[in-house]
Amino acid sequence: MNIAILTSGGDSSGMNPAIKKFVECCYEKNYTPYFIYDGLEGMIDGKIKKASYKDVAGIIYRGGTIIRSSRSKRWYEKKYRKIAYENLKNNKIDALIILGGDGSFRALDVFYDEFKIPFMGIPATIDNDIPLNEYTIGVDTALNVIREAVDDIRDTASSFSRAFVIETMGRECGYLALTSAVANGAEMCLIPEVKYNLDNLKKRYLDEIKNGRSYFLAIVAEGLNISYKIKEWFEKEIGFESRVTILGHIQRGGSPTVIERLRTAEFVKTALDNIEKNPDKIVTYYDDKFVLRDLKDIVNSKYELDENMLALAKKLMGI
Ligand SMILES: Nc1ncnc2c1ncn2[C@@H]1O[C@H](COP(=O)(O)OP(=O)(O)O)[C@@H](O)[C@H]1O
Ligand SMILES: O=P(O)(O)OC[C@H]1O[C@](O)(COP(=O)(O)O)[C@@H](O)[C@@H]1O
């Protein structure tokens, strides 16, 4: 069986260990591993190559993806998806392993409906916004990058008695902001999923200032697009000099954490263990187990944040 792997959408740390495990597992199972370079764009352009051990030697600790990724405008047009399918056929590819986020799974859904090419999907995005799934490859490393950055900002915030507004990635999903705010002990956490109350926060902050609070850390999700407004709010309403730090793409980099490396190996092993009997599934991580789910169930469901984590952060949202 010839199996090809591709990485699609935003790259995330842990994709490289997954690619390495894929090649190793293919050899163990007598499958022939192939790489599709440059994600969906590369599938359209026929960038498909047989992979070997040599290609994956020494990559386990590297962030990003050695086979590169892309966002593809052409994929939305059927004529390009047909070219992609013909490229797979010409290279005698029997099945696909795709590492990506919700967008990549929607792309796969359209492709499977049209061409029925067997596949396994593995959630990989720093946003952790895949429904029916609790962990995506890359989110743990991203959270650790944020943790370190926010700890560093705390040093300067406390030295200068300032309010820092720190913007995290995640598109419309507030997972990174929510989890980081709790893990870093921030005073504020604003995310798109929850209606916050600045009046309540102001009342609390003014009381705390009377009791000696001398700086603030506010974590704001990029999806709200209000970081600079919150900076002005701190200056006008709270009377604190304020700065904005947009963490940006550093959140996508870094050496994969131990958790990424271990879970990645299990994701890939589960995918390859099942690819012959269940060739149209997403491997999810749920309740500490690796669970196969129908792609349709994933694309037709909505991601929801964990209630316990939300409860921990309510005070930081003024509710
Ligand atoms: N509804 C869709 N139909 C077809 N292709 C899609 C659809 N949504 C996303 N894609 C394709 O999947 C690619 C990856 O999705 P994107 O949202 O950029 O990243 P991620 O997979 O990390 O969420 C897009 O660039 C696009 O080519
Ligand atoms: O790298 P780009 O194209 O600027 O995209 C930035 C976006 O990609 C992400 O880092 C990851 O998103 P996806 O994994 O869904 O592609 C988002 O958090 C962010 O909004």
TrEMBL record:
Residues 2-273 form the Phosphofructokinase domain. Pathway: Carbohydrate degradation; glycolysis; D-glyceraldehyde 3-phosphate and glycerone phosphate from D-glucose: step 3/4. One of its GO terms (molecular function) is ATP binding. GO terms for cellular component: 6-phosphofructokinase complex. Keywords: Allosteric enzyme, ATP-binding, Cytoplasm, Glycolysis, Kinase, Magnesium, Metal-binding, Nucleotide-binding, Oxidoreductase, Transferase. InterPro entries: ATP_PFK, ATP_PFK_prok-type, Phosphofructokinase_CS, Phosphofructokinase_dom, PKF_sf. It is an enzyme of class 2 (transferase). GO terms for biological process: canonical glycolysis; fructose 1,6-bisphosphate metabolic process; fructose 6-phosphate metabolic process. It is found in: Cytoplasm. Its main location: cytoplasm. It catalyses: beta-D-fructose 6-phosphate + ATP = beta-D-fructose 1,6-bisphosphate + ADP + H(+). Gene3D superfamilies: 3.40.50.450, Phosphofructokinase domain. Belongs to the phosphofructokinase type A (PFKA) family. This is 6-phosphofructokinase. It comes from Caminibacter pacificus. The lineage of its organism: Bacteria, Pseudomonadati, Campylobacterota, Epsilonproteobacteria, Nautiliales.
